[in-house]
Amino acid sequence: MILVDSSAWIGFLRGLDSPVVERLEGLIGSGAELAITEPIIMELLAGAKRPRELARVDALTNGLLLAPLVPMTDFRDAAELYRASSANGHPIRSMTDCLIAAVAIRRGLPIVHDDRDFTFLAEISPLRLDGAE
After folding, report:
1. Which of 12, 95, 101 is nearest to 61 (CA)?
2. Would you call 110 helix, strand, or coil by DSSP?
3. Is residue 74 a known part of a binding site?
4. Which residues belong to any copy of the PIN domain (predicted)?
């Protein structure tokens, strides 16, 4: 199973030509087990500006595996990732990214993304990156 961040899904939904989108398309084509977690769903739904976009996001997210939050465990681990990133001179721009990373680490899932915060988090934690990063 591979966790796919909203940054990769957004590129895919917009039809962007990027290594991350190519990787995601390859994973979809190969029938790989792709997963999301609740914060990724929230980010995708929040970005849907029109009813048609919302319907597309709903269809996408309903067809994926869910790597659910374990609230207090993941919240604490996300806070620790945030503190560690600041202590290492690279404060993460989004606490949500720390929460997504905490879920990926706990589940042992690599993450497909197009967000430099995950690249840095992988340098200071057990977070595993997948593909075109």
Report:
1. 12
2. strand
3. no
4. 2-119
Residue at token pair 């690249």: 119
The residue to which tokens 């995950």 are assigned? 118
* 117 labeled part of a ligand binding site: no
Scanning the structure block, which residue is given the tokens 């990769």? 8
How far apart are the C-alpha atoms of 131 and 76, rounded to whole Å?
28
Q: How many domains does the chain have?
A: 1
Cα–Cα dist 97/61, whole Å: 18
Under 8 Å between Cβ of 114 and 7? yes
Integer Cα distance of 31 and 22 in angstroms: 14
**In this structure, what CATH number is given to the domain that contains residue 99?**
3.40.50.1010
Angle at 62 between CA 58 and CA 64, to 5 degrees: 125
By residue range, what is the domain housing residue 63? Answer: 2-129
How many CA atoms lie less than 13 Å away from 112 in the CB half-sphere? 27
